[in-house]
Specification:
12 strands, elongated, Outer membrane efflux proteins (OEP), 57% helix, 2 domains, alpha+beta, single chain, 10 helices, seven-stranded antiparallel sheet
Length: 499
């Protein structure tokens, strides 16, 4: 395989055409070059990066649920000017004018406890009431309030999120790597589309030139009576077909070139020439190793665990929402009311509140049991589905590994056949010029040469596609014998918010 660095070389090449010869600036690209560009600047890579960033900030949001929350809130001001009804001793109502302001400021520090689902808080608040009708001001202070709320027999969101959300985040990280490797697979397909088109263009140019030369020789032989009119006309038809094939090949080459440039995000109109990636790595992949790496690295393996946990979470939620529930709330602290702020903080009095709430369903016509049994049945279904998905996952790994190893051996045979076909065509052409071979046999040799070249390019495509597919399925680089991970620089940039 060629090195990853770009090898941009401006060359002046002679491009054959039926009428003119001109020089064009070109760029030589290897498969690694093209994949590197696609991973770095394609729309698909930017989409994967954006999705990764979104999942990262979702993870940060989840983490914040387990850290202390400090907040300042209040009503400044809460002004009221209206009439209020006042009941009189005789039962009548008098409407009295009211002009007051009831302001409140509170500083609160709270913390959730994942183990029990409880929450504790420390609070400090100050309230001021102004009665403008009577010119009275009062203060109510609570310097320190410590409280907690503990639900019993209820669904513990914090506890279950702590089991599920870390797996989700790991899934998102591996999903990003898989997205980048998928870009490599797609790019490989587009690379070989263009490579085959360029190969066909080269063959078409060469065939046109060869047919022109052979036709000229046939004309000379016809002029001296050594070739028939039918043979000359057949060669003329072959030349016309070669010229038409050249026009079609140029159009295809231009189309596939635009497709590749569009996908990898390359905006230049510069003509590119692809280098055939015929340096095949000498490696043999063991299916057991590939499966082990896949189970360690792929998001699918993480998803198997996460889906079971989510099913268990639904069972716990069904139990908590339909059964007996209790909530204990308690507050301890100090409080004082006074006409001035300083007096409101002098010798505060103890403050204690205890509240026990409960909810016991007595008759729900089997709704509680139905919801619980539904969640249990759904868990069984998910377990069976996960088991089938795991079997399919393992089968795909074994199939792809065997395919890659087979394609590597097949590629050697295809290359040998391509070399033989090239030699046979050269021999056939020489024999025809000497008059020892028919036009039909020469045409067959030409077709065999072209087909063997195309077959070789197709075999290369199948091999490299399988190579990048096994990378995607295992997230393991078997050339370097290391796991495929997110670069550390990208992780730091993501944490710093620069992506």
């Amino acid at each position: 395989m060629y090195s990853y660095s770009h090898k941009v070389i401006l060359l002046i090449l002679l491009v054959l055409s039926p009428f003119t010869t001109k020089a064009i600036a070109q760029t030589l690209w290897t498969l690694d070059d093209v994949i590197g560009m696609a991973k770095g600047q394609s729309i698909a890579s930017k989409q994967a990066e954006t999705e990764r960033e979104t999942n990262y900030w979702k993870w940060r949001t989840y983490q914040s649920n387990y850290k202390p929350q400090l907040s300042l809130y209040g009503n400044l001001p809460d002004y009221n000017r209206s009439f209020t009804q006042v009941y009189q001793p005789d039962g009548s109502i008098q409407f009295q004018p009211v002009i007051n302001n009831n302001a409140l400021a509170s500083l609160s520090l709270s913390q959730g406890i994942a183990a029990t689902g409880a929450s504790i808080f420390v609070n400090s608040q100050l309230q001021r009431f102004d009665d403008f009708n009577n010119n009275v001001t009062r203060y109510n202070s609570s310097p320190v309030l410590i409280g907690f709320s503990q639900p019993l027999f209820a669904y513990n969101t914090l506890r279950w999120d702590k089991k599920i959300e870390p797996i989700k985040y790991l899934e998102s990280r591996q999903a990003y790597i898989e997205s980048i490797e998928t870009i490599a697979i797609n790019t490989t397909g587009l690379f070989f589309d263009l490579l085959l088109a360029q190969t066909n263009l080269q063959l078409a140019e060469l065939n046109r030139e060869n047919n022109e030369n052979i036709y000229k020789i046939a004309q000379e032989r016809y002029n001296v009576g050594k070739s028939s009119t039918n043979d000359l006309l057949q060669l003329k038809m072959e030349l016309l077909k070669a010229q038409k094939a050249l026009i079609a090949a140029r159009q295809n080459e231009e189309t596939y070139s635009r497709n590749l440039k569009s996908y990898i995000g390359y905006r230049s109109n510069e003509h590119i020439v692809l280098v055939i990636p015929d340096s095949i790595p000498d490696m043999y992949i063991d299916a057991t190793v590939a499966l082990r790496e896949a189970l360690e690295n792929r998001k699918d393996a993480l998803a198997f665990r996460r889906r079971i946990l989510e099913a268990e979470s639904e069972i716990a939620k069904a139990r908590g929402e339909v059964g007996f529930k209790t909530n204990i709330n308690a507050t301890l602290g100090y409080s004082k009311a006074a006409s001035t702020i300083s007096d409101a903080y002098k010798s505060p009095q103890n403050l204690t509140t205890v509240l026990v709430e409960f909810n016991l369903p007595i008759m729900n016509w089997g709704r509680a049991r139905s919801r619980l049994e539904t969640s249990r049945a759904n868990k069984k279904l998910i377990e069976y589905t996960v088991e089938q998905d795991r079997n399919d996952f393992e089968r795909d790994i074994y199939t792809q590994v065997n395919l890659l190893n087979m394609l590597k051996e097949q590629l050697k045979l295809t290359k040998e056949a391509e070399d033989i076909a090239q030699q046979r065509y050269q021999i056939a052409k020489d024999r025809y010029i000497l008059g020892n071979l028919s036009i039909t046999d020469l045409s067959l040799a030409l077709q065999e040469k072209d087909l063997s070249k195309q077959d070789y390019i197709t075999s290369l495509r199948n091999f490299w596609t399988a190579h990048y597919t096994i990378r995607n399925l295992t997230l393991y680089d078997f050339l370097k014998n290391e796991k495929i991970t997110v670069p550390a620089s990208n992780e730091r940039a993501l944490r710093n918010g620069s992506l």
